[in-house]
C-alpha cells in the first residue's frame, strides 16, 4: 500500500471572501465567474474597495486535498506560502484537516507575501476571483520531493500552476517520480482562460502523461476550441483513460473505455460556488482510490460539490462520509 | 450635531473560529462560554490543536461599532493593532463597514502581534473564547484623541479593557473629554470573570461616570454579588440612569427612571453565540442616538442579536435596518 492516496500540487493561498453586487464587478473591471491574476498593488487597491470580508484557507488543489483528508484519505499537499500570518493560517488549516503539508515556507521579511484570492460573491452565489499569487508563484522543481511523489497512488496537478513558468518543470518532475513508481496522474484544467493561456502545454501533457482529467464544461470547450459540448467530451475521452467533467446544475459526465455516465447534480441553494469543482475532484479521487466504480465516484463528487456550494468558503464543513451514506453511495 | 453618534474603545482583534466538541474544551482546560486570557505561547499551542478555522474580524466593542456603522450610524473605533496581516484585516473590515478607525498601528517587526481570539463553537452554538490580547493590551491614554471624544454623543467602553492597567487612564481621559463636551458614557461589563477581576473599579466608574450600563445576567449577578437577578437589576438601575441587561433566550431588560421593560428575544437557531451582546449594544446605542424610546432600543438590540447568532462570526451579515422594518420597529 502506498503511503498516500492523493498528493496535490497547486497554488497555496488564503481566500478573502466578501459579498458584492454586479455593479461593483463591472465598475472594478472584474470578470464574473472567472479567475483573474492580479499583482500586489492591485490586491491592496481592490481590498480597500471591497466590503467586510472573512478569511478562509483556499487554493484549488488544497481544497481538493482538504476534501480527501476530511473523507479520511491519506493525502498530502505541495504549494508555497511565506512564513507570515496568512501562511501560518494556510498551513494550520490543511494540517488540522489531516493532510500532510511539508513544503518549506519562504522566510519572513519584505517582498512577496503569502498568496491570497479576493473572492467576490454575487447574490446568485457565483464567485469572481482575483488572485494575487504571492509566493505560490515561485513553486519550482526544488519543492518537489520525489520520494513523496513515488509514494502517491495519484498525484493531482492544478492547472492554474501552469501560469508559473518554473512550475512546468516541477510538474514534470512530479509526474516522472509518480509514474516511475507505478502511480497515476490526474490534472484539472482549472479555468477556461487558464486553458486559453496554456492550451498547447495542457494538450501535450494530457495526451502524454495524464490518466485522469478533471474539467468543467467551459474549460473543455476552451481546450478543444469548440462550442459543441458532446464533441469536446468525445475529444477529451479519446485523449485520456478517464475523464470527469462537471457541468454545474447539470451534474457531471464520467467517460472511460467508451462508456459515458451522466451523473445528476444534487439540488442545492448556491450560497457560494467557490470550491465546487475542487471538492468534486477530491471526492472523486477518494472514491477511485478506494476502488469505487467511476459512476459512483462521480456521484460522490456531485455530493461533495453540493456541500461546499451551500456555504461561504471552499472547504467542506459537513462530514462528507455522512453525506455519502445519506445518499446511499457508501 | 456631533460628528459621531458612538465612539467605541476596546480590544482590537481578529477572531479565529473553529468548531469543537465538549470533550475538546474539557481536555484542553477551556472554560465553556467564557473568555479566558492566554499568552502568545498558549495561543500557538492551542491553535495547533484546533480544527480548520476561519478568520473574521472581531473584538467586542469593534463588533458593536460595526453594528452601528452597518445601521448607517456615524461612528468611530479606538483600539490597537500592529501593522501585520491580521492588523490590516481588522482595519479593513471596520472601515469597509463605514466606521472611522484611526488608532495608530504598532510598527511591524518582532514581538507582540495583532490580538486574536481563538473561539471554539460547540454544537449547541455556545462560544468559548481564548484571547491573546497582543497589541490591544497596550492601549494607553496617548491613543485617546480628546477632540474625537468631544465629538461623540456617546462613548462606549469595553469592560475587557479593564484588564490592561494603562487603559484605566485611557478610559478616564476619554470620559473627561466626552462628558466635558456634553457627551454621554456607556460601558459594557463584558464577562462575569472580568467583573470578578475588576469589581471595585467597575463599580466606582458606573456610579460616578456612566450614563448607560450594558450587561448580561451573569455579569450583573457577579457585579452585585448576588444570585437574585431582580435584586441585581434593581441595584444596577439605582447606580445608572439607564440599564440594558440581556438575558439570552429570555430577551433583555431595560430600566430607567423607575420603569422596567422586559423585551422578548427573537426565536433563533443559535449557530454561534459570539457577538450577541455586542450587537445588542450596537443596535441599542444606534436607536438611542436616533431618539427612539428605551423599550424600542431594547427591541432593536434583540433583533440585531438574533441576526448575529444565526451565523458564524460576530459581525452582522444581513441588513439590520431591513430586519428592523420587518419586525415593525422602524
Q: Can you give a write-up of this model?
A:
- 2 copies of one chain form a homodimer.
- With 330 residues, chain A is of the alpha/beta class.
- Chain A has one domain: UDP-N-acetylmuramoyl-L-alanine:D-glutamate ligase (3-Layer(aba) Sandwich).
- Helix content of chain A is 40%, strand content 22%.
- Chain A has 13 helices and 14 strands.
- A 9-stranded mixed β-sheet of chain A has the order 6-5-1-9-10-11-12-13-14, sandwiched between helices.
- The first copy, chain A, is globular.
- The two termini of chain A are 22 Å apart.
- Chains A and B meet through β4 and α4 of A and β4 and α4 of B.
- β4 of chain A pairs antiparallel with β4 (54-58) of chain B, so a sheet runs across the interface.
List keywords for this structure.
homodimer; 9-stranded mixed β-sheet; UDP-N-acetylmuramoyl-L-alanine:D-glutamate ligase; 5-stranded mixed β-sheet; alpha/beta; 14 strands; 13 helices; 22% strand
